[in-house]
Write a structure and sequence with these properties.
Blueprint (H helix, E strand, L loop, with lengths): L32 E2 L10 E8 L9 E9 L8 E6 L11 H7 L7 E6 L13 H5 L3 H15 L8 H15 L4 E7 H12 L4 E9 L10 H14 L11 H12 L4 E6 L5 E6 L1 H10 L4 H15 L4 H8 L13 H11 L13 H10 L11 H7 L24 E6 L7 H10 L3 E6 L6 H4 L4 H10 L35 H23 L1 H6 L5 E4 L3 E7 L2 E8 L5 E7 L8 E6 L6 E6 L2 E6 L2 E5 L22 H13 L28
Parallel strand pairs: 4-5, 6-7, 7-10, 10-11
Antiparallel strand pairs: 1-2, 2-3, 3-5, 8-9, 12-13, 13-14, 14-15, 15-16, 16-17, 17-18, 18-19
Helix pairs in contact: 4-5, 7-9, 9-10, 17-19
Length: 675
């Protein structure tokens, strides 16, 4: 993954998908042949459509657009679903299989088409290696300017308007008259612009996680204005007993970080501690990363609160997880992201502002904003995050064609927890579209079809394609409980009934440690599914490490509660009924071993024989004053959940599409510098 650092805007707008079909004077027909198969089941066919680089003729040359098509399994297609990846900068053709799975209902009778957007994948991918190497604001300015020089006059030929005409050319080459457009994030802008330009060819729109037709706001005002609502929903009903105001906690942390970075450490997959620093823009990036990762989203209130009270361990672990970016190995292009973003107009200065006058223009626009518009962050955070990423790009912005929004049946999907493209943007767009219907999905972040664990959004999309009525999705708005505030001392934990206090607290600490291991494991599943590595390894919150591979899993002095380590080794060949043997160590623990099986827990801790049945519950008696408001689960239950997770990992995130780049000018640095 390409991960940008502070101010460099890893802001590579979210993965997009769109649906379509064709007629244009530019292309005649496209010859489709079987693609180089990814597997024996790969039924796709590939071809190429050649279009002008610059349709005005000012810059000579052509672009060959790589096209990939999947026919329905039976019968003649009743329509064509045309999938165009967004970002801008993400190649689409490598995503045809997950897109087909996502749209499996509508595709039973429809053809699926993808093509790599110009400048990505096999459609003349653009590359500016200096962008990935840039770290400081000065380096970023130089890298952006150098990329513009490298691309030359052709850089103005990679706008959304050019992609709209490319889509029309491919539609024409396939000989399909009317289309349904399906877009996610940046793809919704492409879909809307195409429908406005060619309404006669559009039968319906499905817009998932909408970017406004005018493009993303460089000041992210709807994003910032939605943070309180999203965090309050997450912590509703005293689900976060450690805080009454999670958004206020974020604001307090931002004020603290204005005095200087927070220092701390995180542990890698070998258990080695790395010193790191964290800034307010890192916190903003974590909130946005939570759009794709419900576990990160559930962890943020406790991480922020812990940092405010002198324990930033969880916050640094979240920051060390990184942020999603474009994947160069899959044909994605950060250079294309720059060329499109800087030209399309999402910049904090008026059109025509010379490069040397842009800093003053940004100052003036910030001065005109009330501080409440940026709460819980501030102007300093947004500046360091890179709202003016395009400040050294020569033509920024370029005048874009505009047309009235189309009057076609439109389904808008919005995740209630989405901060990148908030619900407010979806409702604003719906008010401007005469035939729009908004479906909101509780407990869901960005890219609704890719992250809705209940499947309601998939069902409503299938109903919409079938011409049937749709409804809002119900369900639990917080299907994943917020993460508890991590204990900083063993004495904060309750002792167990009938056990000496130290032994009971050790058992409680072991339960919490196993839960933490399982939670982190789920967040790393994408690496296992990618096939790029034989296994995964990660550090404990306060030390040690875990490793999972084909041979099984290993815990080595894995530490969640200070002073209590948990070690174990389980072979992949072990029977599911075999007991799990844990070795408990640490300066504060009642040391020994525990064997957890179908008949409960047995072992020796602190020289005392321990036997617990599955009715064991920790009790608050004997807990120190100021103890953490968390009740560890019975150890047998924690182990059962862990076994189920390892045996059949089912992360609460979509395996269909990879985490995609960010939609606005924001990047992650600070703690990321140590990764």
């Amino acid at each position: 993954m390409l991960t940008w650092t502070r101010g460099a805007a890893a802001s590579l707008a979210t993965a997009a998908v769109l649906v379509a079909t064709a007629s244009s004077a530019e292309a005649a027909t496209v010859a489709l042949r079987r693609c180089a198969p990814q597997s024996k089941q790969d039924r796709t066919r590939c071809g190429r459509v050649t279009v002008p680089l610059d349709r005005s003729g000012a810059v000579p040359g052509t672009v060959g657009l790589r096209v990939r098509v999947l026919e329905p399994r039976r019968g003649q297609p009743s329509g064509t679903v045309f999938a165009l990846a967004g970002g801008p900068g993400q190649a689409a053709t490598p995503l045809i299989k997950p897109i087909a799975e996502m749209l499996r209902g509508p595709l039973r009778s429809r053809r699926l088409v993808t093509f790599d957007q110009r400048g990505t994948g096999r459609s003349g991918r653009l590359s500016c290696p200096s962008i990935a190497r840039a770290r400081t604001p000065r380096q970023i300015d130089a890298a952006v300017s150098e990329c513009a020089r490298k691309l030359g006059p052709a850089r103005a030929s990679y706008t959304t308007a050019a992609s709209v005409e490319d889509l029309e050319a491919v539609r024409a080459a396939l000989g399909v008259e009317r289309i349904a457009l399906f877009g996610v994030s940046y793809g919704t802008k492409v879909a809307l612009d195409y429908a406005a330009r060619y309404p006669q060819h559009v039968s319906r729109l499905v817009l998932d996680s909408v970017v406004p037709p005018s493009g993303p706001d460089p000041f992210m005002r709807t994003t910032l204005g939605s943070i309180r609502r999203v965090l309050d929903t997450l912590c509703a009903g005293r689900a976060c007993p450690f805080t009454r105001d999670p958004a206020g906690d974020v604001a307090a942390l931002v004020r603290r970080l204005a005095r200087g970075p927070l220092r701390g450490s995180w542990h890698d997959g070998r258990g080695v501690a790395h010193g790191a620093s964290l800034t307010s823009e890192d916190v903003l990036m974590m909130l946005l990363a939570g759009d794709f990762d419900p576990i990160m989203r559930a962890s943020i209130p406790a991480a922020v609160r812990g940092a405010a009270h002198g324990d930033p361990a969880l916050l640094f672990r979240l920051a060390a997880g990184g942020s999603a970016g474009l994947d160069a190995e899959s044909g994605d292009s950060d250079a294309l992201y720059l060329a499109t973003t800087c030209a399309d107009g999402g910049v904090p200065w008026p059109a025509g502002t010379p490069v040397e006058q842009r800093p003053a223009a940004v100052d003036a626009m910030f001065a005109a904003l009330p501080s409440s518009a940026l709460f819980p962050f501030d102007a300093r955070t947004l500046r360091r995050a890179g709202v003016d990423l395009c400040r050294t790009w020569p033509e920024s912005p370029v005048a874009q064609p505009a047309a009235p929004l189309p009057d076609v049946p439109t389904l808008i999907l919005s995740g209630d927890d989405d901060l990148r493209t908030p619900r407010r943007d979806a409702l604003t767009l719906a008010a401007a579209l005469p035939s729009a219907r908004v479906v909101t999905v509780p407990g869901t972040g960005h890219s609704v079809l890719g992250s809705d664990v209940e499947g309601c959004a998939l069902a409503q999309t299938a109903r919409f394609f079938a011409g049937r009525s749709v409804r809002d999705c119900g369900g639990d708005p917080t299907f994943l409980d917020p993460v508890a505030l991590p204990p900083t001392r063993l004495s904060q934990l309750p002792a167990g009934r009938g056990l000496p206090p130290r032994v009971g607290r050790t058992v409680a600490a072991v339960s919490l440690t196993l839960d933490d291991f399982g939670m982190v494991f789920i967040t790393r599943l994408a690496e296992l599914f990618s096939g790029s590595a034989d296994g995964i390894a990660f550090g404990g919150l306060r030390g040690g490490f875990a490793r999972i591979d084909r041979r099984g899993f290993v815990l080595h002095r894995f530490t969640y509660v200070p002073g209590v380590t948990v070690s174990a080794r389980v072979s992949a060949r072990a029977d599911a009924d075999d007991p799990l043997v844990l070795r408990i160590g640490g300066a504060g623990a009642a040391r020994g071993t525990l064997s957890i099986g179908n008949r409960g827990v047995t072992g020796t801790l602190g020289g005392r024989r321990v036997r617990l049945d599955d009715e064991f519950e920790p009790t608050g008696r004997g807990a120190a004053a100021g103890s953490v408001a968390v009740t560890p689960r019975p150890l047998v239950a924690a182990v059962a959940q862990l076994r189920a997770t390892l045996a059949s990992p089912d992360a609460p995130r979509s395996p269909l599409l990879p985490p995609a780049p960010l939609p606005g000018p924001v990047g992650l640095g600070g703690a990321g510098d140590a990764r």
